[in-house]
Amino acid sequence: MASTSDFRNGMVIEYNNDLYAIVQFQHVKPGKGPAFVRTKLKSVTTGKVIDNTFPSGTKVTEARVERRPYQYLYKDDMGFVFMHTQTYEQITVNESLIENFELMKEGQEVEVVVHADDENIISVELPQFVVMEITYTEPGVKGDTATNTLKPATIETGSTVMVPLFINTGEKIKVDTRDKSYVERVK
After folding, report:
1. Max CA separation in the chain (angstroms)
2. CA gap 71, 110 in Å, rounded
3. What is the dihedral of CA 133, 71, 65, 20, to 10 degrees?
4. What are the structural domains, with CATH classification, of the chain?
5. What is the pLDDT of residue 121?
6. pLDDT for 77-88, tens place per residue?
7. Cα separation of 73 and 106, whole Å?
8. What pLDDT, on a 0 to 100 scale, did the predictor assign at position 119?
9. How distant, in Å, are the alpha carbons of 45, 133, 180, 183 from that of 30?
10. Which ranges of the chain have pLDDT less than 50?
11. pLDDT (tens digit, 9 = 90+) per residue, 57-73?
12. d(CA 3, CA 17)
């Protein structure tokens, strides 16, 4: 059992006969009345996000989850195929369990989150940043760094990312996998 003081982002709890991952939480102590914790919970099974408020000190059941290292191999009709990096066991995962799957390259290391009690796959988590090569974008103009203007660029996986005007085709960039945003140019 855990209490609301143990909440952290990514923690998986059992709530309303379902598994929910804590996306966001905030401890609130109003001037009048008892303290409470405002949370944003994402259902592991359906993907639906709900807002919920817990009174401070409420006991919740923390679900046991394991993070296992896998490598992305390829995509076929059944889904995305991953290989465990130590046991070489292969699994197929539906794309609904992978957030921003369009940022995955073949051979990339990921973490597969598994419910320890029944071995069900909860989600696939990409690293926070990935390095991608620009395959197409409008030509940039040298010295165009003064403004925060962005343009669309196609990366090697076929996805589109908004990049600054000075980025050209063939350059490598670092992309944040949480929101598909440009971070920096990579030399």
Report:
1. 59
2. 6
3. 40
4. 2-62 (2.30.30.30), 65-125 (2.40.50.140), 129-186 (2.40.50.140)
5. 86
6. 999 999 999 999
7. 5
8. 85
9. 34, 49, 36, 37
10. none
11. 999 999 888 889 999 99
12. 18
Report the alpha-carbon distance of residue 40 to residue 167 in Å, rounded. Answer: 36
pLDDT score for 48: 85
Report the alpha-carbon distance of residue 77 to residue 178 in Å, rounded: 26
- The percent of the chain in helix, strand and coil, each rounded to the nearest 5, is 5, 55, 40
Give the per-residue SS3 of 15-37: ECCEEEEEEEEEEECCCCCCCEE
Compute the distance between CA of residue 48 and CA of residue 63 in angstroms, rounded to an integer: 18
d(CA 122, CA 69): 14
User: Which pair of tokens denotes residue 174?
Assistant: 């670092």
Position 142 scores a pLDDT of: 67
- Contacts of residue 151, defined as CB under 8 A and 6 or more positions apart, other chains included, come to 137, 138, 162, 163, 164, 165, 167
